């Protein structure tokens, strides 16, 4: 998460190094983006209805692409395959 300090010297989280914390989460079904979210913490939760809707849009697979938004641009994506 940090862009300003990477050494974990004292066991406390390193500083974020951004004015605010934000992440973009794009959910793809079979290679096409079907949902896009912006969250302001390193977590996202879906209720049962949202999960059912995402599953209904996919025939083969779901994948989340997660990027951190910062003052200098977007991070490289973290790609996470989601089981159906």
Protein described:
- The two termini are 28 Å apart.
- Helix content is 12%, strand content 38%.
- The longest helix has 10 residues.
- Strands 1, 2, 3, 4 and 5 form a five-stranded antiparallel β-sheet that branches.
- The mean pLDDT is 84.
- By secondary structure, the chain is mainly beta.
- It is built from one helix and five strands; from the N terminus they run ββαβββ.
- The chain is elongated and about 45 Å long.
Secondary structure: number of strands: 5
Estimated radius of gyration: 15 Å
On the 0 to 100 scale, the average pLDDT is: 84
Number of helices: 1
N→C terminal distance: 28 Å
Low-confidence stretches: none
Strand fraction equals 35-45%
Q: What is the overall silhouette?
A: elongated
Percent of residues in helical segments? Answer: 10-25%
Order of helices and strands: EEHEEE
Query: What is the assembly state of the chains in this entry?
Result: single chain
Key phrases:
about 80 residues, mainly beta, 1 helix, 5 strands, about 10% helix, about 40% strand, elongated
Tell me the layout of helices and strands.
Elements lengths: L21 E8 L2 E8 L8 H10 L4 E9 L2 E2 L3 E5 L2
Antiparallel strand pairs: 1-2, 1-3, 3-4, 3-5
Brief rundown of the structure:
By secondary structure, this protein is mainly beta. The protein has one helix at about 50-55, and strands at about 20-30, 30-40, 60-70, 75, 80.
